[in-house]
Amino acid sequence: MASQSTERYEIALNTPAGQITTSVEVPTGFVPVTALVPLARRLGEHAQALEQARSLEKGRDLSCRKGCAACCRMMVPLSPPEAFALRDSVRSLPPDRQRRIGERFAQAKSVLLAHGLWHRLLEMGETMEPPDDAALEPINRDYYALRMACPFLEDELCSLYEERPAACRELLVTSPAEWCQDLVHNPVEQLPVPVRVGPALSLLWGDVTNSPARLIPLPAALDWAERHQNENVSTWQGPQLLDRLLDKVWRFLSAAFQQK
User: Which of 27, 157, 197, 201 has its CA 20 to 30 A from that of 35?
Assistant: First the structure.
């Protein structure tokens, strides 16, 4: 199959910590929304790098280090495009790794079923209501109380690090690392997140598919992607998707400026 032609775009976005300037290559032909997941993550990481530099200027460095996996026991929400991209990443792995990951997802489902959380997570991925942080808080709290490791965690390291969801990339703290062992009772200081990539991709998905903007909990993401696989066959022109994505990103940047 011949590779698609691409077009280079220069992007400049103002954030509360400075300006993002970057070049991106976007397919000119028709592509699924998942094609923009790496680009969206890249924009989010550029924004966080600016926030980290600003934090360093104030004498506050990041305390997150390799092997620190407290946040890998939190409930991670994914947008539909991220759920499909995650499923594709798992499918690209050698069979033995796919099997081990599948076993860990099955174990996680068993624990969640035993604690009455599995069906609540499934409902999150199917609800017709827009994501609401306040409404999700009780589920987040009950999930965190289990201290259950992410199915991708191996020896306290992410086994799918390069493909990890945006929410995992965005939880960075400047408070002491040991405080993260009890996020409920410790005043953890998180680096600001001016570009919320997962919600932006969720809004983009809802826009192009005329469906609700959903966030899917990671333990249910592979299951959700399989059940909704027919929804991921539609394609749109790459430049059109980029314009729509940037519109969603700017919504979050506007909110970040208002909170500044």
Answer: 157
